[in-house]
């Protein structure tokens, strides 16, 4: 998307030169204003994923949310209604469009096998099955029901879960629910560091 | 012109005989220069005044004019430098030119018979040549600055400021010379224009306008150079 | 915008009248840049890039936070950084958003030879129309602020449009909207000037900046981007903001007296030659006369 | 934050220290600028370097990294000496008048009473209030001795507890009252001493503290000051104590609870506030409830241990809101285990793992390095880069069996096995299986995030995830459900919690986050009746209106009590978009929802005097409405609504004392009731207050070969790390726009140091600590200056943390691909377990 847009610009620029080389421009249109690129685009309210100011952002996507459109981001700007940021965004928030439209995004599950020097692709099903198997194997091998003093422990001491900074409250809660149920105590988050 | 008070001399039968004045190379170079100058002139005039901007349309519009103008300028410069190489000796100003210069009013008033005889080029032509030559040196230097304005750092912006003035002034000088040149060769001095087309002048023409040169070469006749 | 052509008050390289000349709008727009509350975050730089669809260009670290040395054809908005030590030894990090100033009397427009390549709208925005631009670069010479930049690929010159696509539908420019601290403000020229003056007074009276002031240079009849500076006496400290910007004298000379002198000379020359032809007629060759020995005609 | 982002506009004075909000929270910082523009408010910026925050400040003071307690302690001293404190507030809203137990000793030698040097721990028995009555004017106090004696004698039996009735002296004259002890504690922090420790010239220091305390000139209460900080305070081995010092200052000056005041932590990431609330941390449960330990025999004993009882002067009241802990915890257990949580099985209390020691961040890596932790799941968390001591983390991962990384970009953690320096041959010997799962970006998922001001705001998904990427919650749910299936089929160790955990979402493999949010709010499981009238208030199955209705008998469920009220029968409160702000004070009561109970400024009762009238009538937040017999306000009163001011109910309702703690008794902090200046573990100088006890006595060091510490004779330069405004952590190095702004890593070094070493700007340099070597270009600047520390010249340098070994520039090999955390030490604050990354020692060499 981003590459093609840049290419489009180049084509447009070169085309413009070509048009003026081969054509005549005796009657210039005095002033051609650019059309507003988000004039009828769909607008979705979101929250910036970076710092804890929690700025409201408006994500503009192709189409008007009609059924037959796969939305893609065309522009992001601040939500003027949000009391904290009132439409403003910092340099990171202002570049959010390219966070989504980024050729570096991961788009398929991969696995690096023991001793391998590169990634290989793996299906979701297989990846999830293997992870579940690892989880059970490690939990069963490292689970401590009673500690050395005979006190209740119920800890899985062989697995850790570290959570990120942009995870939603609901995701964090689900993690706590699932991981505490597995007996995890090495449960940490960006909030610590 | 004087009337037929003096009867044509015995050499009259030679009068219409053609003698070579410009080689093919000189003519080709001249017309390359002439065309490139004209093009640069027209496009330059388009940029000079909004009222002449329509001239740019002749070459396909403003951007094209802007794109080609410096290239034609360069062609003209090359052509002129070649001319310089070829004609440098012919264009040297000598004592005879000083006498001619004093008698210039006669030349302007078409009283050519009151002028001292001149060689291949008269002092006026030499002035024209050196005028164009100096003008083009200035145009070239400032033209390059204008061509690549974006490459001049901001701290060197005085070069830009100087360039626009000098380029325009130098162009005006060459335009003046150019107008005189075209006027004289096309309208004023009959036979001049043809000479740059065919390369030949009549003996009478040579005798009339460039007598010293004529005396030097009068042995020659129409033959391949 | 259908009414855009009628709202033009100045058109570059244009013969004849301008459709909107003399048009009086209710107000002119203005961008206020309060350098004293700028935090150099570069949100304006990114917002400008994103809105205008430009992306990555190669930059290198240059012992500064500054993104690049100057604005570029595809980078219209650049914060200039200067580590400044005051007389008492205290540090200041001066940061100024550099962009097109949208001069009331624009040097770029004055220098431009191409019909309608640069226009000025009635709201004060000076806009480049790349469709009409011939890429001559005269605007770069005419600008006292080093703003228009040439794109070698497109062979056109580009600069900040003050987001006229946004302004024309009633939105604020992208940089203004993004600015986190509100150091950028957008409104009418009159109100921005008042706001700037109030802030400058506050800096003078409360914050101890005796030379605080507003930068709205009269040399270009004022600008549609104005600054509040801690030290209005030394605008050069702020990334080389010119003290007394004006259209370069050589551009004025070139577009003024020289042009009329030249036109006069050219027309006069043509007339003179025509007169000469009518008065003296052509030079004709004459039959060869025998040499009388003195080299002169008999 | 006790207050909020917009609220900063109400302030008159800002002390910004340990934070750089202009760069790291630019959009929140606008409210500081608004205060400056509209109220002539002043900013004091105290930082190891002149930042972009400093550029807007009225006064900048360069401090040596890690000496903040010395700075703030001196400020306390100055405020007391110059009568610049809030006397009425101090007496009535803090524990200044409380009398401390006999035997309590201040740390003149660097140690409080009760230190066991063999174990390296404190016996905190003496860190307590004295039981008793009003001792006002009775400075010589035999009564106190009488009270002190029995409690000292009863030491071995039950763990020490706060006395229900505290002895107090409202004249603040008693030598062992908190105020006198505090005065005595900080009397050592003279401007001269502070200068020697912090490197701030005395005149500058006095100017700064005079400016800050000027808001309380002669005790006048009209003006308000705020303290704004971030991880520049947290990331020290005494981080919690720095923040406590700030809290003490704000209590002393009467700034807590007031609009434009407070102690404001600017959290660094979009939802680490929420992650902390949800307890994605080893040592807490959702809503800041305590974790079970092995010694908690059952639910009842756990609740007894963790439910505080009030401790206050007998005529005063204390709401002690945490006395509701049983209701909160049982409702949480009902949310976690649903029908499997019954009264008979202690609501599934035994399903929870018992936490017996420190399992925090640095311990994960230590224990993984020692072969104990075999598997790791990292979701949106670049573990190799973020914590201290990158080398150790990489080498720990080499020893793990498996690693699951859920990410949106290729990150350093998932590619630890090919970090710079690891050859292909070595890669073949690394046996860790790594799964890298493509997750969804922020715009691709919905859910709520909680900002630093505790506003819980819902966001909507705008686009589908790219390619095969999946929503994070779906991935975790699908892993969990597959594990559960394995346990169902095959059995295994203690499968009960796995099988019984409530996962009753409409689509269990794709849990709807709005359903989860409703679970966080909680609902009635039986008809709830009003205690007095007996009428049904909430019907079974209905969403609860708030946490006040939570029950400890299993008739309510609530995933997180502080979020109760976020999604009520009236609908989703966190999706509200009301932009009205009737008071003009930036409260925005109808915009999203703030925990707790939509209160925007915490402890706002303290914004009024004893009679319930606002200290500043122009900034009215809440007030006592005599006619209605209720507290009313522009904000939701953070108080018992019908508590008459005459009842003297303490405004700090979450403390058992009901008042703010200048003195932190027994269990609150690890290393002492008052903060004391300690040097960072790596410091260029001995502690000038007590050279024998230079560092925080409770800091533990690991013993792995990677845990090395630099000798100050060799490593002479103080280094601090930070983020830049142009980049976001280790994330935007994948975003061309941000890479363009800061294309290469650099190190900010003072001009004088550069001259000494023959370094010019743009030169490549090495920064070397005992643990690693970092390579980047030199940024030679005058914004960092050499400092005189106790008569010796000390340089400080600064290191932005953003680059690593995967990213746009890294992949193009345009930089040295060295992460900044190669340099940092794995030592942590004993309270918050946060690692030190703001002050450590390095040397600098030209590359």
Short description:
The complex is a heterotetramer of chains A (193), B (225), C (298) and D (847). Chain B is mainly alpha-helical and 225 residues long.
3D structure, described in words:
- The complex is a heterotetramer of chains A (193), B (225), C (298) and D (847).
- With 225 residues, chain B is mostly helical.
- Chain B is built from 10 helices and 2 strands, in the order αβαααααααβαα.
- Chain B has one domain: Fumarate Reductase Cytochrome B subunit (Up-down Bundle).
- A two-stranded antiparallel sheet of chain B has the order 1-2.
- In chain B, helix 2 packs antiparallel against helix 3 and helix 6 runs antiparallel to helix 7.
- The radius of gyration of chain B is 21 Å and the shape is elongated.
- Chain C has a 4-stranded mixed beta sheet.
- The longest helix of chain C has 24 residues.
- The radius of gyration of chain C is 26 Å and the shape is elongated.
- Among the domains of chain D are: 164 residues, 3-Layer(aba) Sandwich (Dimethylsulfoxide Reductase, domain 2), CATH 3.40.228.10; 140 residues, Rossmann fold, CATH 3.40.50.740; 156 residues, Barwin-like endoglucanases (Beta Barrel).
- Chain D has 23 helices and 29 strands.
- The chains are: A alpha+beta (193), B mainly alpha (225), C alpha+beta (298), D alpha/beta (847).
Beta fraction of chain C: 15-25%
Reading off the top of the CATH hierarchy, the class of the largest domain in chain C is best stated as Alpha Beta
Tell me the total number of β-strands of chain A. Answer: 8
CATH architectural category of the largest domain in chain C: 2-Layer Sandwich
Name of the level-1 CATH class of the largest domain in chain A: Mainly Beta
Instruction: State the end-to-end distance of chain A.
Output: 35 Å
Please mark out the parts of chain C with pLDDT under 50 across 5 or more consecutive residues, or reply none: 293-298
Low-pLDDT runs of 5+ residues of chain A are 1-28
Task: Give the beta-strand count of chain C.
Answer: 11
Number of helices of chain A: 5
Mean pLDDT of chain C: 92
Residue-averaged pLDDT of chain A: 87
Based on the structure given, which CATH architecture of the largest domain in chain A is correct? Single Sheet
Looking at this protein, list some descriptive labels.
heterotetramer, B: 225 residues, mainly alpha, two-stranded antiparallel sheet, disordered N terminus, C: 298 residues, alpha+beta, Alpha-Beta Plaits, four-stranded mixed beta sheet, 8 helices, 11 strands, 26% helix
């Amino acid at each position: 998307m981003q590459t093609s847009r840049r290419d489009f610009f180049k084509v447009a620029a070169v085309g413009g030169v070509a048009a003026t080389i081969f054509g005549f421009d005796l009657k210039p249109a005095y002033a051609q204003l650019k059309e507003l690129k988000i004039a009828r685009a769909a607008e979705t309210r979101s929250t910036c994923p970076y710092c804890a100011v929690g700025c409201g952002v408006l994500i503009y996507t192709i189409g008007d949310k009609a059924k037959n459109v796969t939305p893609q981001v065309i522009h992001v700007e601040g939500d003027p209604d949000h009391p904290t940021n009132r439409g403003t965004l910092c340099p990171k928030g202002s570049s959010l469009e390219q966070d989504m439209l980024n050729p570096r995004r991961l788009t398929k599950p991969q696995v690096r096998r023991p001793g391998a020097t590169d990634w290989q692709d793996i299906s979701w099903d297989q990846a999830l099955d293997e992870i579940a198997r690892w989880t059970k194997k490690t939990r069963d091998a490292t689970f401590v029901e009673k500690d050395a003093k005979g006190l209740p422990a119920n800890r899985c001491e062989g697995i850790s879960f570290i959570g990120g900074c942009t995870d939603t409250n609901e995701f964090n809660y689900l993690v706590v629910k699932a991981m505490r149920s597995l007996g995890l105590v090495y449960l940490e988050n960006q909030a610590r560091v | 012109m004087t009337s037929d008070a003096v009867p044509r001399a015995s050499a009259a039968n030679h009068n219409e005989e053609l003698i070579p004045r410009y080689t093919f190379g000189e003519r080709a170079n001249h017309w390359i220069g002439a065309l490139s100058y004209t093009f640069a002139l027209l496009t330059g005039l388009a940029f000079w005044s909004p009222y002449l901007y329509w001239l740019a349309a002749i070459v396909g519009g403003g951007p094209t004019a802007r794109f080609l103008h410096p290239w034609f300028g360069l062609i003209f410069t090359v052509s002129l430098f070649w001319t310089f190489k070829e004609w440098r000796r012919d264009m040297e100003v000598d004592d005879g030119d000083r006498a001619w210069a004093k008698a210039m009013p006669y030349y302007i008033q078409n009283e050519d018979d009151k002028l001292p005889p001149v060689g291949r080029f008269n002092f006026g032509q030499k002035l024209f040549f050196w005028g164009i030559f100096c003008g083009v040196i200035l145009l070239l230097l400032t033209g390059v600055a204008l061509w690549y304005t974006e490459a001049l750092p901001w701290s060197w912006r005085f070069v830009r400021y100087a360039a626009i003035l000098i380029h325009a002034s130098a162009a005006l000088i060459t335009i003046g010379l150019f107008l005189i040149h075209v006027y004289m060769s096309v309208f004023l001095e009959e036979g001049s224009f043809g000479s740059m087309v065919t390369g030949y002048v009549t003996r009478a023409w040579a005798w009339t306008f460039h007598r010293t040169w004529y005396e030097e070469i009068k042995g020659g006749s129409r033959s391949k150079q | 915008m259908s009414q855009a052509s009628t709202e033009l008050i100045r058109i570059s390289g244009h013969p004849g009248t301008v459709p909107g000349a003399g048009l009086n709008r209710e107000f002119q727009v203005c961008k206020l840049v309060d350098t004293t509350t700028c935090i150099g975050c570069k949100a304006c730089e990114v917002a400008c890039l994103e809105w205008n669809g430009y992306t990555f260009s190669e930059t290198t670290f240059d012992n500064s936070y500054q993104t690049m040395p100057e604005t570029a054809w595809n980078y219209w908005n650049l914060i200039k950084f200067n580590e400044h030590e005051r007389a008492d030894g205290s540090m200041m990090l001066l940061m100024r958003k550099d962009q097109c100033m949208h001069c009331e009397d624009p040097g770029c427009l004055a220098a431009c030879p191409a019909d309608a390549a640069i226009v000025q709208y009635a709201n004060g925005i000076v806009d480049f129309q790349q469709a009409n631009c011939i890429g001559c670069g005269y605007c770069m010479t005419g600008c006292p602020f080093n703003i228009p930049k040439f794109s070698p690929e497109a062979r056109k010159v580009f600069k900040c449009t003050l987001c006229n696509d946004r302004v024309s539908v009633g939105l604020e420019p992208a940089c203004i909207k993004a600015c986190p601290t509100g150091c950028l403000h957008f409104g009418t020229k009159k109100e921005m000037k008042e706001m700037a003056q109030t802030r400058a007074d506050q800096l003078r009276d409360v914050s101890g900046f005796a030379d605080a002031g507003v930068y709205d240079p009269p040399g270009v009849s004022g600008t549609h981007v104005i600054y509040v500076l801690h030290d209005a006496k030394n605008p050069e400290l702020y990334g080389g903001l010119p003290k007394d910007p004006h259209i370069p004298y050589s551009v004025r000379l070139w577009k003024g007296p020289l042009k009329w002198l030249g036109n006069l000379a050219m027309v006069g020359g043509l007339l003179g030659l025509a007169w000469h032809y009518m008065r003296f007629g052509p030079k004709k060759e004459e039959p060869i006369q025998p040499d009388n020995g003195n080299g002169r005609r008999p | 934050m006790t207050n909020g982002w917009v609220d900063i506009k109400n302030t008159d004075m800002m002390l910004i220290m340990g934070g750089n909000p202009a760069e790291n929270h630019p959009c929140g910082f606008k409210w500081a600028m608004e205060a400056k523009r509209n109220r002539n408010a002043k900013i004091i910026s105290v930082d190891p370097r002149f930042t972009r925050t400093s550029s807007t400040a009225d006064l900048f003071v360069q401090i040596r990294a890690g000496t903040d307690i010395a700075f703030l302690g001196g400020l306390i001293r100055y405020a007391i000496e110059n009568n610049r404190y809030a006397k009425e507030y101090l007496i009535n809203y803090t524990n200044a008048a409380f009398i401390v137990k006999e035997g309590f000793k201040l740390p003149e030698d660097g140690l409080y009473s009760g230190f066991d040097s063999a174990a390296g721990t404190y016996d905190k028995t003496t860190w307590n209030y004295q039981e008793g009555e009003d001792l006002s004017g009775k400075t010589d106090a035999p009564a106190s001795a009488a009270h002190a004696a029995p409690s000292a004698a009863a030491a071995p039996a039950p763990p020490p507890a706060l006395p229900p009735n505290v002895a107090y002296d409202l004249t603040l004259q008693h030598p062992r009252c908190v105020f006198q002890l505090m005065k005595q504690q900080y009397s050592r922090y003279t401007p001269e001493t502070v200068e020697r420790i912090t490197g701030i010239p005395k005149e500058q220091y006095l100017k700064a503290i005079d400016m800050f305390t000027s808001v309380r000139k002669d005790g006048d209460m009209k003006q308000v000051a705020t303290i704004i900080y971030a991880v520049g305070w947290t990331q020290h081995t005494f981080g919690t104590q720095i923040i406590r010092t700030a809290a003490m200052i704000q209590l002393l000056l009467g700034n807590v609870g007031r609009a434009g005041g407070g102690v404001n932590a600017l959290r660094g990431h979009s939802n680490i506030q929420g992650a902390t609330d949800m307890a994605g941390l080893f040592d807490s449960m959702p809503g800041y409830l305590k974790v079970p330990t092995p010694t908690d025999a059952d639910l009842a004993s756990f609740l007894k241990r963790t439910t505080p009882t009030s401790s206050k002067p007998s005529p005063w009241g204390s709401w002690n809101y945490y006395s509701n802990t049983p209701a909160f915890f049982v409702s949480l257990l009902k949310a976690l285990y649903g029908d499997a949580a019954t009264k008979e099985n202690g609501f599934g209390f035994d399903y929870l793992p018992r936490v017996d020691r420190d399992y925090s961040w640095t311990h994960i890596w230590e224990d993984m390095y020692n072969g104990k932790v075999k598997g790791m799941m990292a979701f949106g968390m670049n573990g190799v880069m973020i914590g201290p001591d990158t080398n150790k983390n990489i080498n720990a991962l080499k020893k793990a069996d498996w690693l699951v990384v859920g990410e949106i970009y290729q990150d350093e953690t998932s590619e630890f096995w090919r970090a710079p320096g690891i050859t292909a041959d070595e890669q073949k010997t690394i046996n860790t299986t790594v799964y890298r799962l493509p997750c969804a970006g922020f715009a691709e998922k919905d859910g709520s995030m909680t900002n630093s001001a505790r506003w819980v705001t819902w966001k909507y998904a705008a686009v589908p995830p790219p390619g095969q990427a999946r929503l994070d919650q779906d991935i975790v749910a699908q892993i969990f459900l597959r594990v559960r299936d394995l346990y169902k089929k095959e059995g295994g160790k203690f499968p009960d919690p796995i099988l019984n955990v409530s996962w009753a979402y409409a689509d269990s493999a794709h849990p709807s986050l709005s359903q989860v949010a409703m679970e966080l709010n909680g609902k009635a499981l039986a008809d709830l009746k009003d205690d007095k009238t007996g009428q049904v208030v909430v019907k079974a199955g209905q969403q609860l209106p708030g946490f006040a209705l939570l029950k400890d008998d299993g008739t309510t469920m609530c995933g997180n009590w502080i979020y109760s009220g976020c999604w009520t029968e009236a609908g989703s409160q966190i999706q509200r978009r009301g932009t009205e702000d009737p008071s003009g004070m930036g409260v925005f009561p109808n915009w999203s929802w703030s925990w707790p109970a939509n209160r925007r400024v915490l402890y706002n009762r303290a914004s009024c005097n004893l009679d319930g009238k606002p200290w500043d009538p122009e900034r009215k937040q809440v007030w006592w409405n005599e006619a209605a017999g209720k507290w009313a306000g522009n904000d939701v009163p953070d108080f018992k609504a019908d508590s008459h001011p005459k009842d003297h109910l303490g405004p700090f309702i979450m403390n058992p004392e009901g008042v703010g703690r200048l003195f932190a008794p027994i269990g609150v902090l690890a290393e002492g009731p008052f903060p004391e200046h300690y040097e960072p573990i790596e410091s260029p100088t001995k502690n000038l207050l007590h050279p024998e006890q230079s560092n925080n006595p409770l800091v533990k060091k690991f013993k792995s070969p990677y845990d090395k510490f630099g000798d100050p004779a060799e490593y002479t330069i103080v280094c601090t790390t930070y983020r830049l405004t142009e980049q976001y952590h280790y994330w935007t190095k994948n975003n061309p726009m941000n890479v363009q702004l800061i294309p290469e890593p650099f190190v900010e070094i003072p001009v004088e140091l550069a001259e000494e070493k023959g370094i010019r700007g743009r030169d490549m340099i090495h920064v070397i600590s005992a643990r690693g070597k970092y390579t980047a270009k030199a940024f030679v600047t005058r914004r960092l200056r050499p400092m005189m520390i106790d008569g010796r010249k000390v340089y400080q340098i600064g290191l932005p943390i953003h680059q690593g070994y995967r990213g746009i520039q890294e992949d193009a090999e345009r930089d040295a691909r060295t992460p900044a955390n190669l340099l940092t030490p794995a030592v942590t604050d004993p309270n918050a377990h946060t690692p030190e990354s703001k002050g450590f020692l390095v040397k600098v060499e030209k590359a």
